[in-house]
Amino acid sequence: MIRIDILTVVPELLESPFAHSIIKRAKAKGLVELVVHNIRDYTTDKHHRVDDYAFSGDAGMVLMIEPVFRAIADLKSRHNYDEVIYTSPDGAQFNQKEANRLSTAGNLLILCGHYKGIDHRIREHLITKEISIGDYVLTGGELAAAVICDSVIRLLPGAMTDESSALSDSFQDNLLAPPVYTRPAEFNGWKVPDILLNGNAAVIDQWRFEQSMDRTQRLRPDLLE
Ligand code: ADE
What we know:
Elements: E1 2-8, H1 21-28, E2 32-38, E3 51-53, E4 61-63, H2 65-78, E5 83-93, H3 96-102, E6 107-111, H4 120-125, E7 129-132, H5 142-153, H6 164-167, E8 186-187, E9 190-191, H7 194-198, H8 201-219
Parallel strand pairs: 1-2, 1-6, 5-6, 5-7
Antiparallel strand pairs: 3-4, 8-9
The protein binds adenine.
Residues 87-89, 113, 132-134, 136-138, 141, 144 line the site of adenine.
């Protein structure tokens, strides 16, 4: 059982990603407890403000330290976090290896980044891991948090109906996954490779491995280095 707390100023953005399919089932089975918290609930400001102008005078609002500090302190007083994660384009690039690592955690706290950023003292003093999901900029860290949670939760034992399917994912062994097909065996004149229809299990396994190698060499040679 893993517990993931997420801190955000836009909790609505995280409703749908966790309400369907494998993530929904994992929650129902008690494999994961996912709790989304609104940072606004932790402000003592009478107008419930959570952001303010940057001291630098730059355009764009900055998430204030006080409500975030109170939120993290409150959660930390109740749970022992393996990582306090901040989603940001300047974090370490997320990958399957990191998803595997996080899936073995007991408690994770994810603070979603915000427009122009958050008061840097939060990052210096409260965050243990900064994660980017790629070299592009999102409007906030919520979608990145959803990506991280999705990739972690599907790895939890019991989350997928066929557990072995996680093992044949792309990246799990640094190779891209082989192609898959289903019925009909011929559509529009386009045929499923003969070997999948007539080969035995060992021959098919060998074919799948060769396909993986070939696709990786062509599409992601960097993975083989
Ligand atoms: N927030 C904005 N852009 C992001 C990215 N690429 N990864 C993680 N968090 C982000």
